[in-house]
Amino acid sequence: MNPSSPSPTDARLQAWLDGELPPPERAAVETWLQAHPEEAARVRLWAADRDALRQRLDAELAEPLPDAWVQRLQAAPANDGAWRRPALAAALALATGLAGFAAGRWSGGDTALAAATPWVQRAAAAHAVYVPEKRHPVEVSVRGDDGQAIAAQEQHLAAWLTKRLAVPVKLFDLQARGYQLVGGRLLPDGGAPGAQLMYERADGGRVTVYLRKPEAGTPAAFQYREQDGLGQFYWVESGAGYALTGALPKAELLALAEAIYQQGAAQGVGDNAAHGPR
User: Fold this and answer.
1) Number of domains making up the chain
2) Does 275 map to a domain?
3) What pLDDT, in 10s, does the model give residues 152-172?
4) Whole domain around residue 172: which residue ranges?
5) Which of 33, 11, 36, 230 is closest to 125 using CA atoms?
6) Are 63 and 102 in contact (CB under 8 A)?
7) Residue 245 vs residues 82, 172, 226, 230, 269: alpha-carbon distances, Å
């Protein structure tokens, strides 16, 4: 497969990611991905999803059975051995389900529901993939010297992402905190569309805001996590999920999260607001 060959199907890309292609086909896909960095970034996001799920399952399987359950099983009469094995299996299955809550604990100190884990991990992965980019950090850029052109691009970006995500997308103004909007891009979000807005300081430091349409019942409360040097505040407001990501101290990231939240609340975007940063 040379760089100009037809695009491989998602099934073939997934097979490449899983190591299921024979060596010649694997090499051909790798050559194609090198020539198509946007697609390579999309596959890296798939890998991040897979790794996040694997870590979560590993944590669940490592979770011990509650002592009370073990004691009850050990105390059962010997002639009840016929039911012990299925009972133990059922107890293990239940314990694994309960362990999902443990998988939501982050090194940042706050406890997040496990259901929030995958999309927040995707936000971190997208941040890691695109923040280092120099030439193509975003799909739609809003930088330049022409004020009218910038305003038109901002309007286009907000309208485009709003249409694709089916939630109102607001471009937050973080200039008072020293950050200028670079632009945004569309991203995969577990089978649905997501988006990333990128902001940059004068010294080149960047933060990103990941946006998505949350599933019904997703908790609205603010959460914080820190992993691999990246801090994240994430919440649900106005029917949209937000994850602010940056390699910043928690206090600095919180100030940006507050600015984003206050701008949304001040303009009355939606009715399902979270209870603010903490």
Assistant:
1) 1
2) no
3) 999 999 999 999 999 889 899
4) 114-266
5) 230
6) yes
7) 53, 14, 9, 7, 22
